[in-house]
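#lab-general

N.A. 3:47 PM
ok so I finally got the sequence cleaned up, no stray characters, all 266 residues accounted for. can someone with queue access submit it? mine expired

B.Y. 3:52 PM
send it over

N.A. 3:53 PM
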Amino acid sequence: MRGAWRVFELSLGEMLWSRRTVFLALIVGSPVLIAFVIRIVDSMGIVPFKINGTRVDFIAIFGAMIWLLFLRFIVPVLGVFYGTALIADEVEDKTITYLFTRPIRRSAVLVGKYIAYLVCTTLVVLPGVVLVYFLLVPFNQIAGSFTMLVTDLALLAVGLAAYGGLFALVGTVMKRPLVVGLVFAFGWEQFALIMPGYVRRFTLMYYIQSLVPHAVPAEGLASLLNFFVTSPPSAAVCLATLAGAVVVTLVLAGRVVERREYVLEQ
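B.Y. 4:20 PM
back already:
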């Protein structure tokens, strides 16, 4: 862990000042901009959203944004772009040998970079969610819905950890990890979630969104898709499964890094 901490200190600064951080800020800033526009439209006396002639509550809008924008898009995207790059970028930049010549275990390099990924993404994503919340939710409803905000923040952190671990493993095993990660996150997972039976249980998103039923829209296409979903697992089962996924993927990724011979192309 001492070696992992050293790598974390080095990697965190690199991540915060990298080009990926600009991408991260743009991705997270989009929901904040959308929430700001919704607030401006509402202040002009225009109802932002209606369903069957009934005004949609701001808390419901916030829940829909958590489910559609953050859980279903931002968390997987950040997991793919950061997780697959933890080792793959070092190989591509031909700097992996500098890390592996230090007197620390190779797996400590992976763990340190993974922790840096978690800190970097949560420091940007979670404040963005808080901004969206305070832009949308009226002041007199904050006391009654603040617990929901805390739950969503914790869930997003769990999602970032789970996807980061999975794609860290993909980045150590695959030659083109970014493509494989995008196909998994926006191909396999999206398809499996609407399939009947137990196929969806082989996705991370199934367990993540089962933790926040309040954030899943109850109207329209989403309710039609949820018709195929069986009784969701309990919160304990979801958390245990996601924690197990993080541990297993990081252990496997560490074993691959420890045993693999990295031959850098000239």
